[in-house]
TrEMBL record:
EC numbers: 1.1.1.47
Pfam families cross-referenced by the UniProt entry: adh_short_C2 (PF13561)
Keywords for this protein: Oxidoreductase
A Gene Ontology molecular function term of the record: glucose 1-dehydrogenase [NAD(P)+] activity
UniProt similarity note: Belongs to the short-chain dehydrogenases/reductases (SDR) family.
CDD domains the UniProt entry points to: SDR_c
Organism: Phnomibacter ginsenosidimutans
Annotated protein name in UniProt: Glucose 1-dehydrogenase
Broadest EC class assigned to this enzyme: oxidoreductase
InterPro entries tied to this protein: NAD(P)-bd_dom_sf, Sc_DH/Rdtase_CS, SDR_fam
Gene3D superfamilies: NAD(P)-binding Rossmann-like Domain
Amino acid sequence: MAQQVALVTGGGAGLGLAIASALVAAGTTTIICGRNEEKLAAAQQSLGPLCHTRVLDVTQLAAIPAFVAEIIETFGQLDVLVNNAGINYKKPFTEVTDEEFQMVMSTNLNAVFAMSREAAKAMLQQGSGCIINISSMAAQYGIPKVIAYSASKTAIEGMTRAMAVELSPLGIRVNCIAPGFIYSDMTAAALNSDPERKAKVFGRTPMGKMGQPQDIGSAVAFLASPAASYITGVVLPVDGGNSIGF
């Protein structure tokens, strides 16, 4: 993977930072993009010289073609795209506004389509490439109060399969990772403040614990590597068994 160039959206913090860290550890030149320049700079400092940053709001769809073209011009190639950037509103179904629903879909779905389309154009010229989308347990089963998020992530899984069928014969593998409940200060605080929800999460997770951000990073690094060269069109749960738990 040392000869590869990767782009991670939403790479300045959280899962995106863990994904970028795993790719950098594998020797991959990794560009992280996001809206917060300070977070990106801090991430770059922690990841070292293989990490590069670009400021981008992925909902500005008209800016994406020029953005990807600049990446290709600067780095000469684009081998791996990780569509990680995403947002969520936790609200009762009847209180979600049209604007909120559309914002989630714009960030979590429309931007993934536009970014993947432009990356695929470059990868087709190379004759190879790898696109990895990030889904969620919200696409595996019903979770209350996240209707827009659930809709967007369910669509991501369908789009992953459709993209794989169309692009894999041309040398581009397309896969998806569905994280389970992954530890962060925010998720830990949310579960600790809601004992009933916490009991439900751990009760249906056979491994009995939350995952760590690096678990997602490792899965991405695997799917991006030659070790996964015959894997395409899959949705890989990284969830401690949560999606099959009882």
